[in-house]
Amino acid sequence: MPRRGFLATVGATGVAGPALALTGSAAPAAAAEPGPAAATLPYPTVQRPFAMPGVREQDWTGALFVAEGESRFALRVGLLTAQGELVREKMTNHLWRIGPMTPDGGYKEVRVSTDDRTVLPAHLEALREVLAHPGQWSESAVADAVVKLPQLEQKHARVQEEKRTVRVRYARTVDGAGLVGAVTALDGDTTVVLELGTPWGEPASFALDGREVTGSAAGLTDSGRRGHVRLSPTEPADSAGCYASAADLTAVATGGTGTPGDAVAGLVHRLAKGQTLTFSARVAARPPQGDAPEAHDIERTLAAAEARVRGHHLTGSGPVGRAADAVRDALSLNTNYDKVNHRNYVMWGWGGGGGLFTGWDSAFDCVEAALVSHPLAVQHETDVFDAPAPPNQVPLRGPRYDQQNAGPMHAYAVWRLYTKLGDRTVLEQAYPALVTFHDLLPEWDTDRDGLLESPYFGDRVGGRGNHLGLDDSPVYADYHRIAKQGGSGDSRDNTDLTDVALNSYYALLSETLAKMARVLGRPRDAERFAAQHATVKRLLNARLWHPGKGLYLSRYLDGTWQETVTPTVFYPLFAGLATRERARVLVEEHLLNEDEFWGQYVIPSVARDDPAYCAGGPVHPDSEHFKFFERYGENSAPEQWQGAAWPPMNFTVYDGVKRYGFDDAAGRFAARSTAMYLDAWDAEGWFPESFDPEPGQRVMSSAVDTAWRTYSWSNAMAVQGLHELLSDNPWDGDPAALLFGSLGLPGTNTVDNVVLRGHTYSVSAGPHRTTLVRDGRTVFRATGARVAVRDFLLRGAGASFDITAGGPVRVEVFGTDGRPRARQVPAGRTHVDL
């Protein structure tokens, strides 16, 4: 297209606001009492044509283009190593810095390097620690360090000397069908390859057109439509060609030979240090014309798009508030495209994830994504409930049934979509599948007493607790197999362990379904599920409270206790099962006890004073860097189930503590979770699956196992702090009410551009002042001390709320009528109507 026309399409900012136009899809039939007809979920699919950076597993430098009829194209930026190898996809190991970026593709920035970080400074420090304290190690460990340290030092030095790093940026056009981009070499003698092909091996044809590349392909859902793409760099390539396969292109780019063809095209550019290659690309129903914008116009567009990231998307500041930027960037990085259902979702981890995962992991992704992008969160959860049952599992659409926490957590996620969006259609689609899931669970009640026992996962390492995502938790080490009679067809047997965590999830599901049923006009369902929650609450408090220890513990059917203490002792708080006094004991005597769970890093997967805590690694009190460390290559001495801090556990414990009104403890807990997350983010640019519970253990703190560097649920750590600043109300009371402010976060923190029920909010919370802004107008201010506000409902003539103040404060409310109303509030908790 002519240059002027393209720039008019890009516009002054280069990005759309909420750039996705979205359509509906049918929900499954209801499976409970008759009620209103099921509606369709908002935003479940992406309108074509569109172009988006990323959205394919680990194509961190790539972009996806989809035309009408679902013809698909992929752009990749490959990087040549000094050894002549091409880094072109599966780039997790090579990812060095993330962001800023947004999930709608408005702007994306990453840095990738030829250094895959298989040797880190922390590895060298670990071996030096062995040699510095040989008396703490075995003779073989010392001998191993003597040999390996010089080898790894030499390898690390060589990699650093030969390292090539590039900065890749994209901005999306206003109409969503095009991108402009730039690749900047941060080291000298850098070779990059612009590759244009297809994302999943679909048939297409590509050709060179001067310095540009064109491509076309038939639609996958409508073969009568053809999509067309054009890639236009602003500088000619040093070499270019079209090849029969990506392997042929790679062979040629790395100095070999490859078969010519039209399946993929490549443009090779050699860049000096500081040099930038700019380009544009566009997808359309007709072949886009050439004459792309000039390099300076692309740079101006990219700068404007970057500026809009913080101005129009989730952002924040302060010790905790700045995690908003990290969460936004991390979830944007892991936004992928479902090639089957044609919508976006959040990739769950594993350095790739292998597509959408319908286990409990994805429920946390939904809650996190709802802070960043409502369309993404709803598309993600729509994908979960549209997903068929995996092979050899109970034929149930939606959440994975072999993980008994998947249904409860997805119910919780869907409910939080409702409390955040105010749109009941998110409930209508999910409700029938969740009712079916709930009504299958009694097959795990071995003795038919109303409480559930753990399913039997076999006598093996790697899954005895897999029914709850607690794979090798020592809680499940000694249960006994009991043959199951009847059931849903799930082939697992029963056991004799009445499980605190499983019954907490069971109760959570009942409670959440009761809330959903009330909103959906199903009173009989609501009564049934509320009664089920009450029953589990009564039974769990009667059978699973250990009066001598002051803890909820799992118990065998013969009456003996499973006495391993893990964070699951707090799960009854999350499910609303604990009595007020028992909740106080759990928080004040156990959670905040530094000998058990408290500390700079929380919360370990086993209590610090439990024999299982860090049992896999020796203690080295004289070591400068590593308290628990065995040898090079052992990256998890505080093994995942023997002490590592897990984001889902932290999220669950935080929500339980907050639910019961322990605002000070909740704030301090959220601050520690967020600090742990930011330590890894700042040091390595990673958001790992789990964290070392001992600060300074840099071998584990950023999860050096490359499969876990970009694990989506990691963001649950930081979301606690963001929810502490501003949150929907997922528990009791009006679901439209807000929670904001904090008694326990350090310093002054802000979070901006949080969208809740159609309004955009910002919060600033500090030692002397807390302010809530809605749609650009201040609606609440408290001056004099820290405050935590609950159940805040703004009215035309004022507001009502509960406030807990750290000291006397002056509270001002500005209702929708604009009139200020004020009063003094004493320290402690006060209900206010203004």
What kind of sheet is the major sheet? 8 strands, antiparallel
- What topology, given as strand order, has the largest sheet? 7-8-9-10-17-14-13-12
Number of contiguous helices: 19
What coarse outline follows from CA principal-axis ratios? globular
What Rg is obtained from the alpha carbons, in whole angstroms?
Answer: 27 Å
In percent terms, what proportion of residues is strand?
A: 15-25%
What does this structure look like?
By secondary structure, the protein is of the alpha+beta class. Helix content is 30%, strand content 23%. It has 19 helices and 37 strands. The strands form nine sheets. Strands 7-8-9-10-17-14-13-12 form an eight-stranded antiparallel beta sheet, with helices on both faces. Strands 3, 4, 5, 6, 11, 15 and 16 form a seven-stranded antiparallel beta sheet that branches. A hairpin with a 5-residue loop joins strand 35 and strand 36. Helix 8 packs parallel to helix 10. The N terminus is likely disordered.
Write the topology of this structure:
Blueprint: H1 3-10, E1 22-23, E2 45-46, E3 50-53, E4 63-66, E5 72-80, E6 86-87, E7 95-98, E8 107-113, H2 121-132, H3 139-162, E9 165-172, E10 178-185, E11 190-197, E12 205-209, E13 212-218, E14 226-233, E15 239-243, H4 246-253, E16 264-271, E17 276-284, H5 295-312, E18 315-317, H6 318-321, H7 323-333, E19 335-338, E20 343-346, H8 361-372, H9 374-386, H10 406-421, H11 425-440, E21 481-482, E22 494-495, E23 497-498, H12 500-519, H13 523-543, E24 545-546, E25 551-552, E26 555-556, H14 571-574, H15 580-591, H16 647-659, H17 663-684, H18 698-701, H19 715-725, E27 726-728, E28 738-741, E29 749-756, E30 759-765, E31 769-774, E32 777-783, E33 787-795, E34 798-805, E35 809-814, E36 820-825, E37 828-833
Antiparallel strand pairs: 1-2, 3-4, 4-5, 5-6, 5-11, 7-8, 8-9, 9-10, 10-17, 11-16, 12-13, 13-14, 14-17, 15-16, 18-29, 19-20, 21-22, 23-26, 24-25, 27-28, 28-33, 29-30, 30-31, 31-32, 32-35, 33-34, 34-37, 35-36
Helix pairs in contact: 2-3, 7-19, 8-9, 8-10, 9-10, 10-11, 10-12, 11-12, 12-13, 16-17, 16-19, 17-19
